[in-house]
Amino acid sequence: MTLVATTEVVPLQIDRDGVMRVHGTRVTLDTIILAFHEGATAEEIVQQYPSLRLADVYSVIAYYLNRRAEMDAYFRERQRRAAEVRAENELRSNPVGIRERLLARQTSEK
């Protein structure tokens, strides 16, 4: 048996919003790396997200570990963008008093 060294392609794709996801799934890079940082093994991550393949999870973790500075910059940008979207949403729909507004709307519909 002869082994042939090959270069594996990391199964990540960037969607139209700039979010990195595991190819063929909706699972984000953030999700996998957060679970990894919380101590989950690749096997546990696959159990939690059955659309993932074990080899892909190992590949994504290795990609992260080999490019930590670049990935940390990506995560910081994702957090910044999430805060921006959250602020935009709060401007459009003020969460203060929402329960009262919903109850008033429910009462007026009866």
Number of E-state strands:
2
Put simply, the count of helices is 5
Structural class: mainly alpha
Distance between the termini: 76 Å
Helix content: 55-70%
The SSE string, one letter per element, is EEHHHHH
Low-confidence stretches: none
Question: What radius of gyration results from the CA coordinates?
Answer: 20 Å
| Average pLDDT level | 91
Query: Within the largest sheet, what's the order of strands?
Result: 1-2
* Shape by Cα distribution: elongated
Largest pleated sheet: 2 strands, antiparallel
List the defining traits of the structure above.
about 110 residues; two-stranded antiparallel ribbon; 2 strands; about 5% strand; single chain; 5 helices; mainly alpha; elongated
Describe this structure in words.
This protein has 110 residues and is mainly alpha-helical. It has helices at 29-37, 42-48, 54-66, 68-92, 98-109; strands at 12-14, 20-22. The chain has a two-stranded antiparallel sheet with strand order 1-2. Helix 1 (29-37) crosses helix 3 (54-66). It is elongated and about 75 Å long.
